Amino acid sequence: MSGTPRLTLVPRFSQNTPYDREDILVKLDQLISPKGAHSARSVVLHGIPEIGKTTVAAGYATKKFEYGIYDFVLWVQGQNSVSIAQSFTKIAHRLDLNGADAKSHDHNHYLVQKWLQSQGAPVLIVFDQVKSLESIEPYWPASGRETVIITTHESRLAFKDIEHDILVNRWDNETGSEFLLKQLQKNEHFEADTASAVALSETMGGHPALLTACATYVVEAKISLAEYRNLKPWNNLKTEAARESSTWALIFDQFSEDSQHLMATLCYLDPRIDPSKLLRENGSKNFPYHLDFCNHESEFSDALHKPKALGFIKASQDGGTLVIETSVQTCLRKIFPLECRQKSFNTAAELLVGVFPDRELAESQLYNKWEICNTYLRHVMHLKECFDKEMAISKEFKAPREFCILLEIAQRFLSETNNMKECMNLCQANLRALKRLGQDPEQADFEAAILSHQAQATESLGDPEKAIELNKEVYNIRLKQEQVQKPGNSTAELKTAKTRLAKVANNVGYCCDTANIHEEAKKWFIKSEEIWTSMINDKLEEQPRPARHVANHARCLTYLRNFDEEVESKFKMAIIELQNEDPINQAIALFGRATLLRKQSKFKEAKEQYFGARSAWQKLDGTGFHPFSAACGYRLGTCCLRLEEFRAAISHLEESCEQSKVWKADRPVEHARGLLMLSEALEADSTSTQADRDAHKRDAEALLRNAHIDPMQDNIVDACDDRVPIFWR
Prior knowledge:
The chain is mainly alpha-helical. Among the domains are: 7-167, P-loop containing nucleotide triphosphate hydrolases (Rossmann fold, 3-Layer(aba) Sandwich), CATH 3.40.50.300; 173-252; 624-728, no CATH class. 61% of the residues lie in helices and 5% in strands. The strands form 2 sheets. A 6-stranded parallel β-sheet has the order 1-3-4-5-2-6. Strand 7 (313-314) and strand 8 (323-324) form a beta hairpin. Helix 16 packs antiparallel against helix 18. The chain is globular. The model has no long low-confidence stretch (mean pLDDT 89). This is NB-ARC domain-containing protein.
C-alpha cells in the first residue's frame, strides 16, 4: 500500500467509536466486507432518530480505512438534493479532479462518477441521513464495484431495492447503564452506582441521546445518579418524552443568557455546517441585537465555553468549532416554548437574509452571486424543514417576512442553476409560509414571485401547459396592481407595475412556444411589446423593449415559419444589444438565430451561430453541464450530420450525451434525442459498429418508454424536439 494515494472524508466530529455496537459491526463485515461471506455491495442502517446510525457508519468506515480495507472512503450528506450535490462537489475537490468547479455541481458529479469507473482501488461510499432511495438514485455509483452504506430513520420499505438492511436499536438496560457509568467517569466525584444507572437506563428506554444528556447534567451539576433520580422536575414524570425534555431543560438552564441565545439560534441552522461566518461576518444592517456578542471576541468565546465543554458544540470538518450535534439540536427544540422557537427561527431567517443578495437583484439574474448563494443554501433548506416541523406542532407559529424573502431568492438561485425539483419544493414551502405571514403589503408580490418560479420549473421539466396556467395567474396579479395605480401615485410605481406586466406577458409567450402553441405565443409577445411601447409613449420609460424579449419574439416567428427580413433583423438587433449584458441572454439569442438558419436549411451558417452560442455560454463558470450546453453540442452535431461531417457530428453528439446523461432522470427526452442522433451519426460513419449503434438506440427507446412516449412512432426525433424547452430546442 506504500505510496498509493488514499483519502477518507468521514467527518471528524462523527469519528467516535460506536459504543457497544460490535454486533452491528460484525454484521456489516459479514455483508459488505470484500472478504465477507456475502460480498454484497450495499446495506441500509435504519432506526429511530438520534439512535447512533451515523456514529456506527463513521466508526466502521474509519476502522476499515485504517486497516487498509478501503483506500477511499467518501461521505455524502444525504438530507436533500442540495446537500448531496454539494457533497459530490467537495469530493471532486478533495480528489483533486481536473476540471472540478465549485459552481457546477452537475459537472463535479460527472467527474466523480468518471473517476469511480476508472478506479481499481476499493472504495466505500456512505450516504448519511437519507430520506428516500429516489433522492440518491441519480448519484448511485455507476461502476457497481463500490461498497455503499446508507443511514436513514425512514422505513426499511423505502429502501426495498437495497440488498441488505440492519436495524440499529436502542440499548438494553444493562448496556445503557454501562454506557451511562462510562460517561460519568469524567466526574471527579464519580461513584459506580450500578442500581441507579440500571434504573435510569430502563426509564429512559435505552436511548443514547437521552442517556448522554443525563450524564452531561450529572457531571456538570456535580451530583450523584441517586440525587439526579430524586430531582423533583424529573422524578414525577411518567413518559420518556417528558423525562427527555426535562433532562435537556435542566442542562439548558445552566447556560448563560448569551449561550442560550447562541444555542437557540444554532438549532435552526444546518447542524453539519460551521456557521461562524454567518454569525461573525454578517454585513446585515439589521443584525439581531441579542446576538451582538458574536461581534466581540471575548464575549463570543465566553458564550461558547459551556456548550463546548458539555460536547453540545464540536469540531467541524474544516477545523471550526461551531458544529452542533444533530441530536442536541433536535432535543433542544423540543424544550423551547413557542415564543423562544419563534424568536430563534426569526433570528436565523434574519441572519441568512443578511448574507444573501438583495431581493431586487433576484428579480433579474444572480449569476455573479452564485457562490454566496451556494455557501448558505443548505442553511436555507434546513430552515425550510424546520418551518414545516413547526407548522405541524403549532398553528400559532408564524412565518416572518424575512423567511419568505429568503425562500424567494433561493428559488431564483435554484432555477438559474437548473435544480428545478428543489426549486419546486421551495416554492411549495413559500406558499405554505404565506399562509402564516399575516397581513403584509407585499403579499401579492410574494405570491407572484412564487408562481413565476413554479412556472419556470414546470416549463423546464416538461409541463409547459401547467406553466402557462401559472404565468397567467401571475399576469392577473400584475394586471390588478397596474389597474389600481392612481393619479397621485409616483411615476416609479406605475413604471414598476407596467414593467412587471410586460415581463409576465413575455413569460407566457415563451411557455406557449414550449407547448407548441406558437400562434398563441405570438399574441402574448405582441401584448408585451404593446405594454412596453405604451410606457415609452407615456414617458415612463426611455429604454427600448428588452433585447431578450425581442429575441423571444423572433424565435416565436421562426417556429411559425416566418423567415422574412424582419425576423432576421430582430435577432441581429437583440444579439448586438445583449453583448453588453451577461452572456446568458446573448447565448440564448444566438441559439435562436441559429434555429432560424437551420430551419431554412442553412446548416453551415447555423453551425457558426451554435458555436457562437456555446462560446458565449462558456464564458460563465459552472454552466458547462447545464441543459443549454448539451443542447449546443446536440445542434452542432445535427448540423454537422446534415453537412456530412460525420466524425465531427459524432464528436459533438458524444459530448452532448455525456452531459445530458447526468440529468437524464429529470430530462429523459433530451438525453434520448441525443442518443438517437448519435446512433444515426454512427450509422452514417463507416468506421462504427452495429453494436454501438444498437446500444445507443436501445437506451434511447428505454428512456422514452419510461417517459410514456412511443419510440416507434414516425419522426421520433422531431417528436422529442417538440418536448424540449424552447430556449434550447
